[in-house]
Amino acid sequence: MTTTTGHKVVAELDRVVIRFAGDSGDGMQLTGDRFTSATAAFGNDLATLPDYPAEIRAPAGSLAGVSGFQIHVADHDIMTPGDAPDVLVAMNPAALRTNIKDLRPGGTLLVNEDAFTGRNVEKAGFAANPLDDGSLEPYHVFRLALTSMSVRAVEGLPISKKEAERCKNVFALGLMSWMYGRPTEGTEAWIRGKFAKKPDIMEANLRAFHAGWNFGETTEVFANQYVVRPQQAAPGHYRNISGNVALAYGLIAASELSGLPLFLGSYPITPASDILHELSKYKNFGVRTFQAEDEIAAIGAALGASFGGALGVTTTSGPGVALKGETISLAVSVELPLVIVNIQRGGPSTGLPTKTEQSDLLQALYGRHGESPVPIVAALSPSHCFDAAVEAARIATKYRTPVFLLSDGYLANGAEPWKLPEVADLPDLRVEFATGPNHGEDFWPFLRDPQTLARPWAVPGTPGLEHRIGGLEKADGSGNISYDPANHQLMCELRAAKIAGIADDIPLLEVDDPSGEADVLVLGWGSTWGSIRAAIRRLRKDGQQIAQAHLMYLNPFPRNLGEVLSRYDRVLVPEMNLGQLVKVIRSEFLIDAQGLNKIQGKPFTVAEIAAKLEEMAK
Amino acid sequence: MTTTTGHKVVAELDRVVIRFAGDSGDGMQLTGDRFTSATAAFGNDLATLPDYPAEIRAPAGSLAGVSGFQIHVADHDIMTPGDAPDVLVAMNPAALRTNIKDLRPGGTLLVNEDAFTGRNVEKAGFAANPLDDGSLEPYHVFRLALTSMSVRAVEGLPISKKEAERCKNVFALGLMSWMYGRPTEGTEAWIRGKFAKKPDIMEANLRAFHAGWNFGETTEVFANQYVVRPQQAAPGHYRNISGNVALAYGLIAASELSGLPLFLGSYPITPASDILHELSKYKNFGVRTFQAEDEIAAIGAALGASFGGALGVTTTSGPGVALKGETISLAVSVELPLVIVNIQRGGPSTGLPTKTEQSDLLQALYGRHGESPVPIVAALSPSHCFDAAVEAARIATKYRTPVFLLSDGYLANGAEPWKLPEVADLPDLRVEFATGPNHGEDFWPFLRDPQTLARPWAVPGTPGLEHRIGGLEKADGSGNISYDPANHQLMCELRAAKIAGIADDIPLLEVDDPSGEADVLVLGWGSTWGSIRAAIRRLRKDGQQIAQAHLMYLNPFPRNLGEVLSRYDRVLVPEMNLGQLVKVIRSEFLIDAQGLNKIQGKPFTVAEIAAKLEEMAK
Amino acid sequence: MTATDVPLQLTKKEFTSDQEVRWCPGCGDYAILAAVQSLMPEFHRPPHEVVFVSGIGCSSRFPYYMDTYGFHTIHGRAPAIATGLAAARPDLDVWVITGDGDALSIGGNHFIHALRRNVNLKILLFNNQIYGLTKGQYSPTSEVGKVTKSTPFGSVDHPFNPVSLALGAEATFVARSLDVDRPHLTDVLRRAYEHKGTAFVEIYQNCNIFNDGAFDLVTSRDSKGDYQIRLEHGKPIRFGNDGERGVIMSREGHCEVVDVADVGEDRLLIHDEYADSPTLAFALSRLAQGPSQATPIGIFRDVTRSSYVEEVTRQLEDAQTKGRGDLSKLLAGADSWRVE
Amino acid sequence: MTATDVPLQLTKKEFTSDQEVRWCPGCGDYAILAAVQSLMPEFHRPPHEVVFVSGIGCSSRFPYYMDTYGFHTIHGRAPAIATGLAAARPDLDVWVITGDGDALSIGGNHFIHALRRNVNLKILLFNNQIYGLTKGQYSPTSEVGKVTKSTPFGSVDHPFNPVSLALGAEATFVARSLDVDRPHLTDVLRRAYEHKGTAFVEIYQNCNIFNDGAFDLVTSRDSKGDYQIRLEHGKPIRFGNDGERGVIMSREGHCEVVDVADVGEDRLLIHDEYADSPTLAFALSRLAQGPSQATPIGIFRDVTRSSYVEEVTRQLEDAQTKGRGDLSKLLAGADSWRVE
Ligand SMILES: Cc1ncc(C[n+]2csc(CCOP(=O)(O)OP(=O)(O)O)c2C)c(N)n1
Ligand SMILES: Cc1ncc(C[n+]2csc(CCOP(=O)(O)OP(=O)(O)O)c2C)c(N)n1
Ligand code: SF4
Ligand code: SF4
Ligand SMILES: [Mg+2]
Ligand SMILES: [Mg+2]
Fold it and tell me: For the whole model, what pTM was predicted?
C-alpha cells in the first residue's frame, strides 16, 4: 500500500532489514542501538545483529576496522535479524566492500561519498572508486555527503572540526529515522542525556540529527518514505532488551525470588563482560560483583559465596570455562549451588572472540575429570536469557549443584522486544537452609532429600551444624572422608541420579507440528531457535509440513524427548558447530539424526535452513 | 604334583596370588616390589596391584593407614593381579581387618601376632582379638611373632630398637621367599645397595632376611614349600616393569627415535608424579624436566618447547587436565606437537587420589572450548605404556597436534614382565622441520601437507622462516589472522579432517574370536584389557564363545571398528566409570552397546566380568 | 563478635572435631593444630561463626580437625574461595590454611591478590619447604641445590622468601613464627586475628618425613640463640644468647647484622611494626634468605588499610540506604511501552 | 650470538613485519614498538634468532609487528610458555610482551615464578592501568576508586606496584620506563637485553581510549620535572627542575623525599643498581604508589644470579659428558633375564 503525504510517497512495508556499517570509530553500534530503541518504542517487532571487530580500533578505514549493526523491523512477529539487508548504510569504502555482497540485488544503498577518498578506496582494496566504476549498478544507490552536511549543520558551534565530523552518524540516524518514520523524542532525550556534561557536543548532535531528518523531508533526493506498522503484539508491557542484559536481570530476579543475595565472581571476557558491567550497577539489590584476578578465582569466589549461603554465579566465555573445570568438579563433589554462565564465542583457543558459536556444549557436558554431571540450560533468544537465568538458578539452588547456562555472542548482543513478566507470576525460588540435626543428634551434611536427592545446605553461622566438606570422596550420609570402594560407586551413582532426576522437574518438550503430518523434525538448541522457526514458517507457507522442537534443557533432556524423536522419520539438528548435540542425541536414542552445521561466527540465515529442508524433502 | 625335599614337602602350583598388607610405615610396597623382582628374575609371569592410602602416613595402626601389595605369580601367561589372594600376610590388626574379606576360604593367612596388642586390636575396630575369637577359622592361619623374631635376629648390632623392629618386613620377605622358592641373590644385592651408606642397617636387614628364610626352612611350622615353575615364555630378553616407568622409557625412546630432545613440563600429582621422577634422572639422554608452578605452566612450557622444536610432553592426572584445557585448545589452534599424559585416578574433584579409574575419557575427547579435536591413545597394560608413549609421540610429531595418552593408577603402579623390544625394531620417528619457503618466495606456516594435512614445523632459529602464530583464527595457508566467516569453517573442518585422517595411519582393530562363532563382543579400552582377557579365557575353557577387541586408539577409531561391531549381536563395554566409551560407540555406530560399569577405585576382577558374560549368555 | 555483654566462654574441646588426626607421627602440623585449638576460645567466637578453608596438601587437612565450619577445597585455590566466602559473609571469621606448595606454587596468584585486596582473611602458611602430600618434591621455598625425587641432580630454582613476597604484594599484616614455639606462635596468631584485612603468617613447620630438620638452626635449643631474631615492636633489634648482635640500617639502604659492641646500641634499628611504608619490614625479611642465616621471627608489619570486604559492604549499604531496588521497575527500565 | 667476526649489520626494516599495525591511533603502544624495532639491530642478532612471546591484550598484539619468530599465546600464560621455549632453546633471545592485566591479574603466578627462576627472558610489561582489549575494566594496577565499566561505584582494591612485586619475587633485573621517552626507554631496554636471567621492565603506556593521561604527571613537559625521579647508578638521587629535591634513607629505614637545601647533598642516597640486597630498590619503589607522586624511572636493580636455563643446561651437559645414554641399556635395566 502506498500513500502520499506532502510531496513524499509513503510506501507501506511489512518488514525491512537495515544494516549500518562503518569504521569502528564511526559509532555504528550506538547508531544501531538508538535506531533499535526508537523502533521498539514505535511498537514494531524487531531483532538485531551487531557485528564488531576483535580489534579495539583497527586502523581507520581498514577492512579489519569495519563495524556493523543489522536490524530487522517488522509489523509481525519475526525471529531473526534477517538474512540479508534491504538497505545498507555504508559510511566508508571499507564498510561498502565488506558488506555489499550481502545487500540483496535491487536493495537500497546509502553511501557517505565524503569518505570515498583515494586513500580510503585503496585501503579498502578497491582498484577504483566503486561509486564510479559501475559496479554498484544492481543497487539503488544514494551518494550522500554525510560528513560535509554534518559539518555544515553544526557550523558556528565552538567545537573542533573532528568533533563536527563525528556527528555524521547522528545525521545518518536522523535521515533513516525520517525515512522509516521512527519517533524522534526518544533519540533527542538520549542525546541530551548522553552529552549532558558537554553542552556544545549535545547541541551539535541534536542539530545533526535534525539536519538528517530534514534532509530527507525537504530535499528531492528521496521520493519515498516507508512505514512499517506497529506489530499487533499481545497486550502487555514491553521493552527492548539484549541477551546479556536480560541474563543479568534474570540473575537479579532469581536473587530476589530466592531471597539469596547474588554474588557474581567474574573475570572480563568478550562477549560476557557486559553481564559483569550490568550487575555491578545493582548494589541497591544487594548484588556483590567481584572482578577476580582470573577465571579460576572468579568461580572459586562464587563457590565460596555459595558455601556461605549466597546465590553464587560466575560468567565467562569458552576459554574461561576451560579454566574452571577443576573447580566445577569440586562443586559437583561438594554439591553446592552455582550458576556457570558461558556466553559462547568462536573457538578453538582465542578463535573469533567477538563472533558467535555453539561449540561449547560438549565442554559443558564433559569438560571435567571424573564422573561429574552438571545440568545444562540454554537460552534461545535475547529475552529468553531472562527465563533461562531464573531457571538455571532454580535448579542450582534446589538440587545443590552447579548448573551451566549457555548463551552465545549472538544472543548476548542481539536485542528484541520483550513482554515483561509480572513479578508476581515469576516462580517461587525460596530455599530452605538446614537449621538443625537431621540424623539423631547429629548433622549429616550428605544425608539426601529422598525426593530430589539434594543434600542439606547448612550455611556457616548456623549453630550446631558445624561440618567440613571437601573434594575427597565422602561417605554417603555422614559426609566423612571415605575410601570405601562400594561407597564411591554409590556416591557416583547418586550424583548421577540426582541430575538425571531433574527431568521430572522440567517441562516436557513441546513440538510445533500443527498438521501432525510432518516427517521431518528439526531439533535445535540455543540461539538457532529464531532461524529455524522462521525457516519452517516459510516452508509451511509453501505447503511443506515440518515439525520443530527446541531444547532449552540439554542435561537432563526432557522426559519425552525419546518419544518425540521416535515419531519422525528424519531428524535434522542445525548447530553452529561441527555437530555436538547431534552426537548426544544419536548416542542416547540410537536414531540417525543428521547435523546441519555452520561454523562461521554468525547465525544461520533463514535461507540456509530452508534450503537444507527443501533438499531433504526432495 | 608334590615332591619332598629334606623334611619339607614341595607342592607345585600353576599360580598363586599373594597379598602383603600392613601399616603404611611397615614397608609393604618395598616388600612387594622386592618379591616381584625376585619373581620376575625367577621367570614366572606375574602381575601386581599396589594399593596404598591417600594419607602420607595415617596414624600407625589405623584402618586408613593400611597399605597393601598384591602379586599374582604363575607358570603361564596371566593378565591380572588376581581377583582374590590365596595367601595373605597381615602385619597388624588393621591390615587383617581391611583385607581378610578378600582372602578365599581355605586360604593361607600369616599374621604378625606381636602387633595384635589390645590398643591395635581396638584401633582396627575389632571388639576382641580376632586371633582368639574363632573368626579366622575358615583360613589356614599361621601366628608368627615377626617383630620379636626380627629383633632377635639383629641382636648385637648397634641399632635402635625401632630400627630393629623395622626389619620385620624383610623377615617376612625372607620367609615368603623361602616358601615360594624365590632366588635370594637379587634381594641381598638390593639390600646392600639400598643401605650402602648405613652399614649397620644393611647388616640388620640381611640378617632379618636370612632369619626369615631360615625360619621357614628349619622350623616345623610350615610343612609345605611351593614351587611355581617359570613360565614357558617366548624366547627373548625380559625385565619386570611398572606402567609409569614404561611410559617414561617410551618417551625417552620417542625422543631418541625422533631426534627431538625431550622436554617434560609437569607439576607433581598422584599417580603421575613418578614419571616426572623417573625422567628427571635421564639428563644423559638430554631430557629436560621442568617442575612448573602449576599444571598450566607445565603444559605451557611444554608447548613453548615444542614451538622451539623439542618433543614437548606434560604429565598429570585428571584434576591437572582440567586446568590444561585452555592451553590444549591453543595447541590445537597453533597445531604444534604435544603429548598430554593423564594417569587417571578416582574423581570427581580430589576424589580417590591414589585409586584407579577410567573416568577421564570424555574429558580427553571434549574437555575444551570450541571445536578442538585431539587424538587419544590408551595403554592397556603396564608394559604397553611403553608402546603407547612411542605411538602418542609419533602421532603428535607427524600430525603436529596435541595427543592424549591415557593410563591409570592401576597401570601406573602395577608391574609385569616385559619382553624388551630391539631398539632397531622400534619405529622411525624422524621429523622434518621446514627449512625454506613453501609458497613462492614466502613461507606459509599453515600450508598443509596434502597427505597428512599437517602444517610445516618451522622452528625459531631457522633463517628466513620468521613467522607468527597464535590462538586467533588463521587464514588457511598464510596463517595470517583471519576473521573471514568461510575461512573459519574451512579451518575448523581441516583441523577435524586432519585428526580423522589419522585413522589411515593406525592398525585395524584386531578381534580375538578364534572360533568365529561368538555372538557377543567385549569391547574395552585401557587397563581393563587383562581382566577382560582373563574372563574370556576362563569362559572359553567352559566352551563359551566370546569375542574380544580392545581399543588402543580412542580418537580416531580404527577404520574397521564399525564393521567389527556389526558382526556381533551384542556388544559389551566394560569400563571403570559410569559409561564413557559406550556413549561414543553408540553415537558413532548407532548400535545398542551396553556398559558394564565399575567405579570403585580398583580394577575389575575376572569373576565380575565373567559373571556378566555368563548372565548375558543366559 | 556476638553482641552479648558476657563474652562467650569456650574451651579447646569445643574446637576439636571427632575426626582422627592423620599426619605422620612427629609432624610439625600437630603443634600448630594444638596452638590454634587452644587459642580459639580466647576470641569468644562460637565455633559456628568460624570457618577454616584450605587447599590440598598435608597441611590442608587441618580443617577436618577443627569443630568449626570447614572447606577442604582444591590445590592452591583456598584464598580465592575464602575471598568469596568472606566477601559474601562479612560476619564470619575466615581462616585459610595452606602449604608452601599450595600457597606459593599453584596458588601464588590468589595468594598475592588476597594480600593486595586486604580481604578479611587470616592466612596461615605451613612452610616445610617441601611437598609433603605428594611425597617429597622440592617446593618454591626449597633451597637451591635441593636433592629430591624430582631433582636428583639438585634443584636450580631460587626460592621465594614468603615474607618478602607478601610485602611486595602490598600485605598489611605479615608475620613469621615456628611450629615448635607455642607461646610465640600463639602471640602471633592472636595478633593476626586482631588485624583487620588479610593477615599473613608464615609458620616454619618441620616435615620429619621428607625434610626433617630444615629449620633446626632457627628452632633448636643449641643454635636458636644465634639464629633467631625476635622482632619486638619499639625495641632495638638485637639477638644472640646475650643480645650481643644487632641489626642496623646502613646508609646505602640495607639491613646489616653487626656486633652491638662495635656500633653501640643507639645505632640499632628500632623495630616498627606500624610503619606506613613496608620498607623496613622488607629489609628485615632479607636478613634471612632461608634459615641458614639469622632469621627474624615475629610481626614484620601490621598496618591499617581499608579492607576489600569493608569497602564492598559500605558500597552496598550506601546504595541500599538510597533505596532498595524494585524488581518490576528494573525490568521495565526507562524505555518500555504498553500494548493494550 | 652467531660466531662471526664482523657483527651482523641490520636495520629497523628487518625487524618490521608486513602486518598492518592495529592499535588505536594515539596509543602508547606505537612508540614502544618503534623503540624496540629501532633498538633490535644494535644487538646484531639476526631476526630468526629472536622470538617475541605474548599473552592476550592490546599490548600482546606486539609480536605480529615484529619480523622475528612470534607466538601470540593465551591470556596470562606468556611467561610460562616462554620459559619452556627458553629452557629448550638457550640459543634464542626470548622476549615477553604483556599487559598489566595479562601479567599481573591472570598471569600473576607465572610472572613471579619466572622472576624467581631467573629464566633468560626479557619481560616488557605495558602498564596502562586498564584492560584495553576488553574495553576498559580496571586492572590490578588501577588506582583505588577508579570508575570503570565494572566498577561504577569506584574500585576498592589496592593496586600492585609492579616494581615492588617484582622485587618481592626475587627479580634480578627491574626497571621502569615511559612510552613517551624514547631515549630513556631505549637505554633501559638495552640494559634489559644485556642482563642474564629474567629482566623485567615496566613501561608506563598511555591508553588514550580508556585511560587517557594516566601518567601525565610523570610524562608531561609541565610536570615531569617535579614528578620524575631519574635513577642513575652511582649518582645521588635528586630531581626537580633544578635538582632541588632529593631522596634520603631515614634511620627508621624508609626512603624520604627532602629538599636538598635542607639536608645537604651528602645525605642523599646514592643509587646502586648492583646492590646485592633488593632493599634499596624496594625502598625506592615505594616512593611512588601510583603516578600521583614523584616516581622513579630507570633501573632499580641489576644483579647477577645464576639463571635457570644456564643451570639446567649445565646439568645436562655434565650428565652427557659422563656418557650419553644408551637406549638398549636403559630399557634392559639392572634386573633383566633371558629366555632362550
Ligand atoms: C590440581 C592439582 N595438582 C596437583 C595436586 C597434587 N598435590 C597435592 S598437595 C601438593 C603439594 C603439597 O605441598 P604443600 O602445599 O607444601 O603442602 P604440604 O603437603 O607440604 O603440607 C600437590 C602437588 C593436586 N592435588 N591438585
Ligand atoms: C582466559 C581469558 N580470559 C579473559 C580474556 C579476555 N581478555 C583479553 S585481554 C584482557 C585484559 C587486557 O588487559 P591488559 O593485559 O592490561 O592489556 P591491554 O589490553 O591493556 O594492553 C582480558 C581480560 C581472555 N582473552 N582469555
Ligand atoms: S609428610 Fe611431612 S608434612 Fe606431611 S604429615 Fe608427614 S611429616 Fe607432616
Ligand atoms: S584500547 Fe588503549 S591500549 Fe588498546 S590499542 Fe586502544 S589506546 Fe591502545
Ligand atoms: Mg609443604
Ligand atoms: Mg592494560
Answer: 0.94
